[in-house]
Structure prediction request, 163 residues.
Amino acid sequence: MLLATTALDLGCGTGDISIYLAQHGWQVTGVDFIAKALRKARSKAAARHVAVNFIQADVTRLRAAGIGQGFALIVDNGCLHNMTADNRNAYVREVTAVAAPRGLLFIVGFHPGTQRGVIGITQEELDRRLTPAWTLLSAADEPEPEQNGRAPLHHYVFQRQPL
Prediction:
Protein backbone atom coordinates (compact mmCIF):
# COMPACT_ATOMS: atom_id res chain seq x y z
CA MET A 1 0.00 0.00 0.00
CA LEU A 2 1.25 3.48 -0.90
CA LEU A 3 1.22 5.92 2.00
CA ALA A 4 0.00 9.41 1.17
CA THR A 5 3.05 11.67 0.98
CA THR A 6 3.98 13.92 -1.94
CA ALA A 7 2.15 13.90 -5.25
CA LEU A 8 2.63 15.73 -8.52
CA ASP A 9 -0.32 16.23 -10.89
CA LEU A 10 0.95 16.91 -14.42
CA GLY A 11 -1.29 18.97 -16.67
CA CYS A 12 -3.62 19.44 -13.70
CA GLY A 13 -6.05 21.72 -15.53
CA THR A 14 -8.74 22.96 -13.18
CA GLY A 15 -7.39 20.83 -10.34
CA ASP A 16 -9.89 18.04 -9.77
CA ILE A 17 -7.30 15.28 -9.30
CA SER A 18 -5.01 17.54 -7.24
CA ILE A 19 -7.90 18.45 -4.96
CA TYR A 20 -8.97 14.82 -4.60
CA LEU A 21 -5.47 13.76 -3.61
CA ALA A 22 -5.16 16.65 -1.12
CA GLN A 23 -8.49 15.66 0.45
CA HIS A 24 -6.98 12.21 0.99
CA GLY A 25 -3.86 13.37 2.80
CA TRP A 26 -1.41 13.98 -0.03
CA GLN A 27 0.87 17.04 -0.21
CA VAL A 28 0.08 17.97 -3.81
CA THR A 29 1.75 20.09 -6.44
CA GLY A 30 -0.38 20.66 -9.52
CA VAL A 31 1.35 21.86 -12.68
CA ASP A 32 -0.27 23.33 -15.76
CA PHE A 33 0.79 25.72 -18.49
CA ILE A 34 -2.57 27.54 -18.71
CA ALA A 35 -3.00 30.42 -16.23
CA LYS A 36 -6.81 30.49 -16.55
CA ALA A 37 -7.09 26.81 -15.62
CA LEU A 38 -4.84 27.35 -12.59
CA ARG A 39 -6.92 30.30 -11.39
CA LYS A 40 -9.98 28.07 -11.47
CA ALA A 41 -8.05 25.27 -9.72
CA ARG A 42 -6.97 27.60 -6.92
CA SER A 43 -10.54 28.82 -6.48
CA LYS A 44 -11.90 25.26 -6.33
CA ALA A 45 -9.25 24.20 -3.79
CA ALA A 46 -10.00 27.22 -1.59
CA ALA A 47 -13.75 26.47 -1.73
CA ARG A 48 -13.02 22.92 -0.55
CA HIS A 49 -10.58 24.12 2.13
CA VAL A 50 -7.64 22.07 0.87
CA ALA A 51 -4.07 23.17 0.29
CA VAL A 52 -2.59 22.48 -3.13
CA ASN A 53 0.52 24.12 -4.53
CA PHE A 54 -0.55 25.06 -8.07
CA ILE A 55 2.32 26.15 -10.32
CA GLN A 56 2.19 27.51 -13.83
CA ALA A 57 4.93 25.64 -15.67
CA ASP A 58 5.79 23.55 -18.69
CA VAL A 59 5.91 19.84 -17.80
CA THR A 60 8.96 19.50 -20.04
CA ARG A 61 10.84 21.94 -17.76
CA LEU A 62 9.83 20.89 -14.25
CA ARG A 63 13.23 21.36 -12.65
CA ALA A 64 13.62 24.85 -14.14
CA ALA A 65 10.23 25.71 -12.61
CA GLY A 66 11.51 24.67 -9.18
CA ILE A 67 8.65 22.30 -8.40
CA GLY A 68 10.83 20.15 -6.16
CA GLN A 69 11.72 16.48 -6.29
CA GLY A 70 11.17 13.19 -4.53
CA PHE A 71 7.50 12.83 -5.50
CA ALA A 72 6.10 9.48 -4.38
CA LEU A 73 3.19 9.70 -6.83
CA ILE A 74 3.07 11.40 -10.21
CA VAL A 75 -0.27 11.53 -12.01
CA ASP A 76 -0.68 12.22 -15.72
CA ASN A 77 -4.33 12.21 -16.71
CA GLY A 78 -4.11 13.02 -20.40
CA CYS A 79 -0.95 15.11 -20.66
CA LEU A 80 1.76 12.98 -22.31
CA HIS A 81 -0.54 11.43 -24.92
CA ASN A 82 -0.90 14.73 -26.79
CA MET A 83 2.76 15.81 -26.86
CA THR A 84 5.16 15.81 -29.80
CA ALA A 85 8.06 13.33 -29.86
CA ASP A 86 10.60 15.96 -28.75
CA ASN A 87 8.40 17.09 -25.89
CA ARG A 88 7.85 13.46 -24.86
CA ASN A 89 11.61 13.02 -24.53
CA ALA A 90 11.85 16.13 -22.32
CA TYR A 91 8.79 15.02 -20.29
CA VAL A 92 10.38 11.63 -19.53
CA ARG A 93 13.67 13.26 -18.55
CA GLU A 94 11.94 15.73 -16.21
CA VAL A 95 9.47 13.28 -14.66
CA THR A 96 12.28 10.83 -14.01
CA ALA A 97 14.37 13.55 -12.37
CA VAL A 98 11.64 14.66 -9.93
CA ALA A 99 10.35 11.20 -8.97
CA ALA A 100 11.32 9.53 -5.73
CA PRO A 101 13.14 6.20 -5.97
CA ARG A 102 10.36 3.61 -6.17
CA GLY A 103 7.85 6.42 -6.82
CA LEU A 104 4.80 5.63 -8.92
CA LEU A 105 3.81 7.19 -12.24
CA PHE A 106 0.14 6.82 -13.19
CA ILE A 107 -0.56 7.64 -16.85
CA VAL A 108 -3.99 7.81 -18.49
CA GLY A 109 -4.30 8.32 -22.22
CA PHE A 110 -5.82 7.38 -25.55
CA HIS A 111 -4.23 5.12 -28.13
CA PRO A 112 -3.26 6.77 -31.45
CA GLY A 113 -6.17 7.25 -33.85
CA THR A 114 -8.90 6.54 -31.30
CA GLN A 115 -9.84 10.07 -30.25
CA ARG A 116 -10.11 12.95 -32.69
CA GLY A 117 -7.67 15.75 -31.94
CA VAL A 118 -5.43 13.63 -29.69
CA ILE A 119 -2.09 12.20 -30.85
CA GLY A 120 -2.31 9.21 -28.49
CA ILE A 121 0.32 6.89 -27.07
CA THR A 122 0.78 3.11 -26.95
CA GLN A 123 2.09 0.85 -24.23
CA GLU A 124 4.99 -0.06 -26.51
CA GLU A 125 6.01 3.58 -26.78
CA LEU A 126 5.70 4.09 -23.03
CA ASP A 127 7.86 1.02 -22.39
CA ARG A 128 10.48 2.23 -24.88
CA ARG A 129 10.60 5.76 -23.49
CA LEU A 130 10.47 4.91 -19.78
CA THR A 131 12.72 1.84 -19.61
CA PRO A 132 15.15 1.27 -17.85
CA ALA A 133 14.41 4.06 -15.33
CA TRP A 134 10.84 2.83 -14.84
CA THR A 135 9.19 -0.60 -14.64
CA LEU A 136 5.62 -1.21 -15.79
CA LEU A 137 3.58 -2.58 -12.89
CA SER A 138 0.18 -2.70 -14.57
CA ALA A 139 -1.73 -1.73 -17.68
CA ALA A 140 -5.48 -1.79 -18.17
CA ASP A 141 -8.12 -0.53 -20.55
CA GLU A 142 -11.37 1.13 -19.69
CA PRO A 143 -14.47 -0.84 -20.55
CA GLU A 144 -16.12 -0.19 -23.90
CA PRO A 145 -16.82 3.43 -24.86
CA GLU A 146 -19.67 5.19 -23.17
CA GLN A 147 -22.68 6.23 -25.22
CA ASN A 148 -21.05 9.58 -25.95
CA GLY A 149 -18.75 7.74 -28.36
CA ARG A 150 -15.50 8.59 -26.60
CA ALA A 151 -12.78 6.00 -27.14
CA PRO A 152 -11.73 3.96 -24.09
CA LEU A 153 -8.85 5.26 -22.02
CA HIS A 154 -5.79 3.21 -21.18
CA HIS A 155 -4.21 3.24 -17.71
CA TYR A 156 -0.58 2.50 -16.91
CA VAL A 157 1.27 2.34 -13.60
CA PHE A 158 5.06 2.51 -13.62
CA GLN A 159 7.50 2.41 -10.72
CA ARG A 160 10.73 4.41 -10.65
CA GLN A 161 13.77 2.21 -10.21
CA PRO A 162 16.14 2.99 -7.34
CA LEU A 163 18.91 5.42 -8.22
User: Anything to note?
Assistant: The longest helix spans residues 85-98. The helical segments are 16-23, 35-47, 62-65, 85-98, 123-130.
